[in-house]
Amino acid sequence: MRYTAALAIACAAVSIETDAAELGECHETSIRKVSSYFPEEPLGKSGVMLEFADGLVLINRADNNAALTSRVGDAVTVCLEYIPEDCPAGDDRGRFYRVINKDSGGANTLTNSPHSCGGA
Predict the structure, then answer these.
(1) I need a surface site. Which of 27, 29, 110, 118 has the fewest CB within 10 A?
(2) 63 pLDDT band (50/70/90 cuts)?
(3) Is residue 119 part of a domain?
């Protein structure tokens, strides 16, 4: 819990509508939808997909208990943690985000794509 609070304080809050553009940028939003990565499978079996009120969609294909405990309406802070290098212009895939759930106290890292930029 101490790590989660420290990360939340360290993030600079910005107002954005979709993906953060700068490494370290954070924004406040809420969870609009929690679903399985593959819709036909039970939640958690194939990973998790979180859709946020600002339109950002993030995934994690691994067993991710923190993401699985997220609920629609939970308030979250989303911070851009990693941007791959040497990406083609306009290809924003492969970014990693730290999601801090203010309601559950959980924190997890998710990505915006199953592939990195320039990939499949």
Answers:
(1) 118
(2) low
(3) no
Give the residue-averaged pLDDT of 77-93.
94
| pLDDT exceeds 90 at position 73 | yes
* Domain that residue 58 falls in: 25-111
Q: Which tokens in the block code for residue 51?
A: 């859709």
| 4 in any annotated domain | no
11 in Cβ contact with 26 (< 8 Å): yes
Q: Is the pTM of this model over 0.90?
A: no
**DSSP E strands: which ranges in 1-120?**
12-13, 25-36, 48-52, 57-60, 75-82, 96-101, 107-111
* Helix ranges restricted to H, the chain: 2-10, 65-68
Structure tokens, 107: 């924190």
In a domain, 59, yes or no: yes
List Cβ neighbours of 43 (8 Å cut-off, separation of 6 or more).
34, 35, 36, 68
The pLDDT assigned to 20 comes to 56
CA distance 29 to 15: 9
